[in-house]
Amino acid sequence: MTAREIARAAAAGEISAVEVLESCLGQIEAHDGAIGAFAHLDAGLARREAENLDARHKAGMPVGPLHGVPVAIKDIIDAEGLPCERGTVLETGRRATHDATVVRRLRAAGAVILGKTVTTELASAAPGKTRNPHDTTRTPGGSSSGSAAAVAAGMAPFALGTQTMGSVIRPASFCGIFGYKPSFGAIPRTGIMADAPSLDHVGVFARTVDDLALAELLMGPDGQDTDARNSPGPLSEIAAGEPPLKPVFAFTGTAVWDRAEPSTREAFAELAGSLDAMVDEVPLPRQFEAALDYSETIMSAEMAHELGHYLDRDEDRLSEGLRDLIARGREVRAVDYLAARDWQGRLRAGLDRIFDRYDAIITPASPGEAPGPETTGDPCFCTLWSFTGMPAINLPLMTGPDGLPLGVQIIGRYGDDARLLRTANWLARHLAFEEEME
């Protein structure tokens, strides 16, 4: 069942929150030994939450829009009563004493916090234990690896992740599920470990585009995250509607098209053919070629600031890759960092013009299918959109040569998330219809 189906059925008394939870726990017991999506699972605490929701419902009290929906939470997001060890042995035993804003809003909406999902080391690049549900010899992607795998394996209908470069869209692509990174600042990050605050986004994983729109329940300022903006919603009503005209798409391979595997290029050529007159190839100006370098400058400098204390405490217990990243960040000159920050706004303004003509940009979510577990994959097709703060969605619409998922990424105008979700819904239905006709 989707998150919306669960909430409707539970609110109508057709199913209890406890029954839904037990179904998820059964899936976890059956499959998580091989997949390793969860870092921390407190079934007793989750049962008490579900029982409390059922008692409130039986007493005739109002129910929320996520009533009885189990939600998995990435293990850099604080949830009171649960560990939050951030994917590193340096935080072993750490427990959250307060809910992050997003968790507080989930609970207020009636969700059941199912457990904490595996992240990479401090939400960076060193892989955790999680494996891809479609092929356990492959990575699920990172850093939101456990959240994506939990949804893909049917262990949770909805999950939270974060993205600094590609950590929501890429795992969604590798795991064959829907993933949504809202516009920068749409969801407050209070109570969430920071990697690079100028790039960090909160995102969601789900089984349908309609469920992605439930992210609107998490949006809006909280008075603590100074980057939090007004919600770009309402999302659900617009996302479920029909576009006034057939959408038109701008395809761009960006400056990293040469990193796409041949099978990915072929798949996107077929996609363009199926969309025909609804898609145009729109190359980006040369100024966009430096976006990955600008992003690396910001990310390394800010991660050195946010995570450098771990290196100072015990560098031998950090991965070599993270040690090197922090060291590079400490060498970034202020003038280069500030210049890179300036380019965030400039490139966003340049992209904004595309949406005067097109409903969405379309591009790969990843270079190809999920690689082996020694890496979390290349985020290159996601980096530009994180750098500019644009909303992005992964649609699990294709498969690669090994029969594994290959995502289609669509990107919208900054702050126009509702239009992007509506366009995503249309595209998913359109391509499903085309497949049925074949």
What does this structure look like?
The radius of gyration is 20 Å and the shape is globular. The two termini are 27 Å apart. The chain has 14 helices and 11 strands. An 11-stranded mixed beta sheet has the order 1-3-2-4-6-5-10-11-9-7-8, sandwiched between helices. 39% of the residues lie in helices and 13% in strands. The protein has a domain at 3-220: Alpha-Beta Complex (Amidase signature (AS) enzymes).
**Outline:** globular
Oligomeric state of the chains present here:
single chain
Total number of strands: 11
Query: Which CATH first-tier class of the domain at 3-220 would you pick?
Result: Alpha Beta
Number of helices: 14
Percent of residues in helical segments? 25-40%
CATH topology-level name of the domain at 3-220:
Amidase signature (AS) enzymes
Span of the ends, CA to CA: 27 Å
Query: Structural class per helix/strand content?
Result: alpha/beta
CA-based gyration radius: 20 Å
Spatial order of strands in the largest sheet? 1-3-2-4-6-5-10-11-9-7-8
Give the percentage of residues in beta strands.
5-15%
Notable features of this structure?
438 residues; alpha/beta; Amidase signature (AS) enzymes; 11-stranded mixed sheet; 14 helices; 11 strands
Can you give me a brief rundown of this structure?
The protein is α/β, with parallel strands linked by helices. It has 14 helices and eleven strands.
